[in-house]
Fold this sequence. Notes:
By secondary structure, this protein is an alpha/beta fold. Helices cover 37% and strands 21% of the residues.
Amino acid sequence: MTKIQIRTKDGSCPSYVYRPAAGAPWPAVLIFMDGLGIRPAMLEIGERLATCGYFVLLPDLFYRSGPYAPMDPHAVLTDPERRKLLTENFFALATQANIMSDTRAFLGYLETHPDVKPGGIGTTGYCMGGLMSLAAAGTYPDRIAATASYHGGRLATDAPDSPHLLAPKIKSRVYVAGAIEDQSFPDDMKERLEQALTKAGIDHKIETYQAKHGWVFRDMPAYDAAAAERHWQTMVALFDAQLKR
């Protein structure tokens, strides 16, 4: 792993780069983190994905809020005051508009890196990052060839910037995995997203895992080892099919 700084319109974004052991150049994957920030469990995603043959970029989407200590999901999720601070100090600045602006810089970094294979890249995201992954596919359709979203929330709402409204612009293959009993992505929202992607003619698949929101990360109360492994299988299959052709 190498820690770098990527210059964005609003500042300098700490980011983490992972490379396979050999065989450059490699296809690239951009990871959009979840709403609990950069911490060991999040960094492990980049590390493992690199072993699958990908050049991985994992930016810290909370950089506008300044440096912060790694968060303990158990503490944050059970403490109303900590959740309030997270919302006011971090989420308030990590808006969809801001992160889509940042994504231009992330893509620019990948496009000019000598170790990155030319062509479309893959994106994956978790929780809030799942929304960002899907939004990026519609915002930068000519640059993104594969899009994954795991336990993403608010993917198809009445908001004017809802990701499902970008479906007509998407050119990538899309895979979305939701959780059961997830208030941020209930059945009616899944159906709305399904209809939007189908109408737009997008090659896509939406599944509901028999797991709870946040199942991928080992430090989350909802961690589910079997579902987490299924996430790896589906994600790598998507990227291999679209980026290693």
